[in-house]
Specification:
By secondary structure, the chain is mainly alpha-helical. It has eight helices and no strands. Helix 5 (59-94) packs antiparallel against helix 6 (99-130) and helix 5 (59-94) runs parallel beside helix 7 (137-166). It is elongated and about 55 Å long.
Length: 176
């Protein structure tokens, strides 16, 4: 078995973290008095706030925002698959220990798919706003899609954190 095959889970983590760092670097190009980062734009909620953000960006900053939104589609694939694969690994390791915890993990795996879909829809509406759409509902759609996305991702990560503590001996022991 070659290095990549043996370490593909850890490479996945590394690539996901690298993309997070790239997004944080992009955020430095869009920071204004009105908006600190892309998450602020995602959670603008109302038309006036989102328009104030778009109006505060220079043409160059708007290109960075567009790049960030497009690059986020790669990040969606990475974070959704990372959380799902991590939950699958927990479920495989704890086997028969807690059927309720396993069922919760499976439910959270589906929630990650919904989170990814909602993230993609949120980006769609944010692109529309950035390109000048004047529909006052678009920021609200983006806000609610982002809010549910953040909730589902947080629940998935919380599940993994609790699992790491609750089942640490099973999860971190070397298989024989």
């Amino acid at each position: 078995m070659n290095f990549i095959q043996k370490n593909k889970y850890y490479l996945h983590i590394a690539i996901t973290l690298l993309v997070v760092v790239i997004i944080k670097i992009i955020d430095t190009h869009i920071k204004t008095d009105v908006c600190n980062d892309i998450a602020g734009y995602e959670l603008a909620k109302d038309f006036d706030t989102s328009q104030a953000m778009v109006n505060a960006w220079t043409d160059n900053a708007k290109l960075w925002v567009a790049f960030d939104l497009g690059f986020d589609y790669l990040f969606i694939l990475l974070y959704v698959s990372f959380i799902i694969i991590s939950i699958q690994r927990v479920i495989a390791k704890i086997a028969q220990k807690s059927t309720l915890w396993i069922k919760m993990g499976k439910l959270l795996m589906y929630a990650q798919l919904v989170a990814g879909l909602f993230d993609a829809l949120e980006n769609y509406y944010l692109f529309k706003i950035l390109l000048g759409a004047q529909n006052p509902a678009y920021p609200q759609y983006a806000f609610w899609f982002a809010t549910v996305k953040f909730l589902f991702v947080a629940l998935g990560l919380l599940y993994l954190l609790i699992s790491a503590v609750k089942y640490r001996k099973l999860l971190f022991s070397k298989a024989k």
